[in-house]
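Standup notes
- DV: blocked on the single-chain target, sequence here:
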Amino acid sequence: MDLCALRHRRWYPRCAISPTLSIGRDAVDLPLKWRTPTHVFVLPGDDLFARPTSFVEAVAATMHAAHWHEFQLTTGLPDVVAQFVARCGWPPNAWLGYPVNNPADADRVPEFTRLAVPVRFLHLRCVPALAAGDLEAVSFVMVEGRPPEVERLRVRCEAAGVRLFVGERPERAELIAGPRTAIVPAAPRTPFRAR
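- DV (later): unblocked, structure below
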């Protein structure tokens, strides 16, 4: 089973850093032009919430308006996301992940799992010791590569009923544990509240 049944695309929305410098290659409203439902990786390898607030709000508004797509992004800044969600809400079609690049990153997993977003996942580049509650509070776990600890994690994910995907790239990850049903529960449409 794939991460999702939809076609995959990557989206790098353009952000103006200064009057003469911008990063990213795509228009902020580009997903609105894609009519076929798509699973969209937002700024793969980068953190949307490390960008200016006005840019984050524009990207979130596009995700909310493009309700026929699923959006997947990761952030290492759960405190910034919590403030954003309290102020603006969260697009129901957006999946939020927390990257664990080293064992020290695992210290913030409990903070991440408390975020009020409908689909939370862990993106592990190493397999740290995780509390049982950390696994039960996420929709799925994605492990990059195939580290030796993945078998222990597979057993824990099976026990918690959490999907475990393993692979070199998220869009090519293979399900090795957990239910083989849809990841995203039906979520009610709520208005997005940009400042």
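- Follow-up: Residues 185-189 have pLDDT under 50 and may be disordered.
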